[in-house]
Amino acid sequence: MSNGEQLAAELWKIATERLRTMVPDNIYKQWFLNMQPLRLDGACLVLGVADDFFAEWVERSYSTQIAEALSNIAGHDYGHKFEEGFAPQIPSEPVEQVKAEEDKAVDTMPETLSNISTPAKSNRVYSSYTFDNFVVGEENRYAYTAARTAAEKPGLFNPLYIYGNTGIGKTHLLHAVAHEVQKNNPNMVVRYATCEEILNCFVESLKSHQYGSFRSQLRDVDMLLVDDIHVLGSKGQLQEQFFNAFNALYSEGKQIILTSDKRPSEISGLEARLISRFEQGVTTEIYAPGLEVRIAILRGMQQNFMMRFDDEILEFIASRISSNVRRLQGALMQLLTRVSLDQDMPITIERVEYILHSVFEEEFTSQQITVDDIQKKVAEYFNLRVSDLLSNKRPKSIAEPRMVAMYLARKLTDSSFPQIGSAFGRNHATIMNAWTKVPELCAKDEELRRAVSLLERQLKS
Ligand code: ADP
Ligand code: MG
Questions:
Q1: Distance between CA atoms of 417 and 255, rounded to whole angstroms?
Q2: What are the pLDDT digits (tens) for 232-251?
Q3: Which residue's CA is the closest to the ligand 1 atom numbered 25?
Q4: Which of 208, 249, 326, 330 is the most buried (most CB within 10 A)?
């Protein structure tokens, strides 16, 4: 241990002793024992935490307490900041085991690979983001299976492109692939990076004229996992580089997995040749998980904590937060924290509702569906353009989706029949007709019924 590390460790020991008296015991264990003193940056103590979620949460909830605990230590006040990518120390054995393997894998990474981004983050995979910890349901099964296949039979689905809304497991799956591959083939060089990190690294390489090393970092790998590839949009120079690296890896049959918040063709400013490369393998959408999965995720999360809520409470939270697993997890954390401050009070639905009021509100606002969203989604689903839905074209293949869109607009928004009519360039009677006709059609046509219910679910997520 270097001097700086030792000092950091000692400071943190003092600070945690103080923190222990400032916060309830379980909060202390949940949060503060899960941080690692890394080093001192001047008068700033750098604390290693699992991920940005953890860091954000602690900063929001306990920054004052930490500042106080770090003040006036031998006459000095110390600041603090977080560094992500450090596995918590509490979790049970299997996680530790993965971590050990992960450390081994990181250690054996060629030197050149560690400098593509900040060393602490690069090639680090969150130890809890494994396939085992991923709860599978109808909405994410395909993405899950595709990711597993890519991990087990690299090159079979190439590239694998997973897209979907935020907070529903894309990054988790990408890390899970890295875990799995490193576990089974410790010698394989798996490179995980966010597109943002690659961009930063590229910019750095231009500044320092170390261009060759940037290139080799993308190419001298056996598997390339790039998170949030939509960041590539409108970055012309980087697109060129990425295109070349992609071709080189692809031609050698090396697995490439990309995640994004949209389809390749919807990324604005993405060159056509990249769109076609990205689409040439397997492209799959991942959806927000259904209620059962959400409840299971909360149950799984609880296992890391000392406090347990009744199923009724978990079901209540899961039923109110459906669009974003990150938000769902945040809600449980918030509840754990608040409830532990006052352990004698019974935990009732009313109390939970009160405590999580603002999270529920945030969820509600994020879920406001517009007629535009509906038109876009329905058109996409039936392989049409929005302009087809707005046209007067009569064939069933267009007229039926058009009615479905009108029906869903009435069902899922607060708009009135006339308002929806004007959004479709029709009168209110046409919309009223669709409103009664669609359920009749669905009763006779199983395929249509399934399409309508899937669309409804997707729009709500
Ligand atoms: P995205 O990359 O799609 O924005 P993440 O992969 O970061 O989302 O997921 C957000 C959080 O939700 C992470 O903590 C992740 O572990 C968790 N999560 C998402 N889906 C699942 C799932 N099916 N099972 C368990 N945890 C999940
Ligand atoms: Mg992500």
A1: 50
A2: 998 999 999 999 999 999 99
A3: 134
A4: 249
